[in-house]
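This entry is retained here.
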Amino acid sequence: MSAIFISNLNSSRFILTGFPGLEVDYLWLSIPFSSIYIIVFLGNCMVLHVIRTESSLHQPMFHFLAMLALTDLCMGLSTMYTVLGILWGFIQEISLDACIAQSYFIHGLSFMESSVLLAMAFDRYVAICHPLRYSSILTNDKIMKIGVAILCRSTLLIPPVIIRLKFLNYCRPHILSHSFCLHQDLIRMACSDIRFNSIYGLALVISNLLLDAVLILISYVMILRAVLAIASQEERIKSLQTCVSHICAVSIFYIPIIGLTMVHRFGKHLSPLVHVLMGHIYILFPPLMNPIIYSIKTQQIRRRVQRLFYLKEMKLIPGATIRLLAV
């Protein structure tokens, strides 16, 4: 046992943690997790396909939704190999370079999703508080600039703290807390000076996730003030209904982050299974739920999705094309 421990310390490979205590059930657990990844892939691809093919959806709100779907799709793909690899039994460890790369994508995509949600909050603010200026404020050129800013913010600020992981000395047991790599997991195993990573990482969280959450909250306070100033109750409800999908998306993104942070900070006494479950909820819940929420709550998306499936069904029925043309 001691020989394994020493070799583990001296190697540049890290052991991935699946579901402690449930190892004998991995094959069964792989079924729901494989289903989740399939739904994540098909759901977000469907949203992207509908927005791309329907010219009536080429509007600012749906451009931002496409950014969200693309981010969620990439988040699912970034963890699929290690999560399903453990459950299927063909991977148990990961190299330092691959771990660093995966942590870069996970944290970068988290910051990207937060930025997209902020852009969507701005879209709702302009649509409700300045409806007459909506098309002049959110032009295609402005949306493209916002998209480039989101991409730069999410990809260019993280490398300093991620690259430094390569040069740390990892002298503690190379056992990760999850079936994927996170920055906080790697620095926990380091014996080198990690002050830069801790301070810079905290600054990134404050300047991205926390700042975005505050700005989203401020935008909804202003939206609520504008809605309450509307005389007609029917118009108030109609205005608020356009925000329901976005509020749900914000909730399912930030609540798991808060939960995971609390578990890491104050849940040392909790079962490792709790840490693993919170980590998977943080990674998989937003990409899984966002396409479902927007397909159900957004009328334009729901109608296009229904029509998409209706057309596919008609193609399978003999003579359906003639009846469809007749309609």
